[in-house]
Write a structure and sequence with these properties.
Elements: H1 14-18, E1 22-24, E2 30-32, H2 35-44, H3 48-71, E3 78-81, E4 93-102, E5 105-112, H4 114-122, E6 135-140, E7 144-148
Antiparallel strand pairs: 1-2, 3-4, 3-7, 4-5, 5-6
């Protein structure tokens, strides 16, 4: 769709959005301004230079979040595997049995739950039929979402 045909959803000047007071969410997090206003500004009024700055800040924040998530992965933690390729590992859960640091990244070995082992087998993972809990090595710690402390879920 040509830009001339894209409807403008917002008429706020940029200064109005930048000057929006802080907002505290029910979870106790403080956000500068209102998210919807910021998104509308980005979609409808931001210049190319402003969009580049926003994307740069977003990439930096995502990198920080990945680093924090990786740092939380420890031996014994129950994790869910997310944002990973190959996708057959997406959403699988298990217990971290080992972590290993290689250069600048940390990798985890995850002993999958019985349910996740079955899912991986169905998704084409080569797992012997008699194996109830499969161990997967080389999972980037940044792809592990910690769900809880050590336990014996199956």
């Amino acid at each position: 769709m040509p830009l001339s045909r894209v409807p403008l959803l917002l008429t706020y000047p940029a200064a109005a959005i930048r000057g929006t007071p802080s907002l505290t969410t029910p979870g106790g997090f403080t956000m500068p301004g209102k998210l919807d206003d910021a998104l509308n500004f980005i979609l409808n009024q931001a210049s190319q230079e402003e969009v580049h700055k926003i994307f740069s800040a977003g990439k930096q924040r995502l990198s920080t979040l990945r680093t924090l998530r990786a740092a939380a992965v420890t031996t014994g933690a129950h994790v869910r595997i997310t944002e990973i390729k190959p996708k057959r590992y997406e959403g699988l859960e298990g217990q971290v049995t080992e972590t290993e640091r290689a250069r600048t990244r940390t990798y985890a070995t995850v002993l999958l739950t019985e349910k996740s082992t079955t899912k991986l087998r169905e998704r084409g993972g080569v797992i012997a039929p008699d194996v109830t809990r499969h161990e997967v090595t080389g999972i980037p710690a940044a792809c592990c979402e910690v769900r809880g402390a050590s336990d014996n879920r199956s």
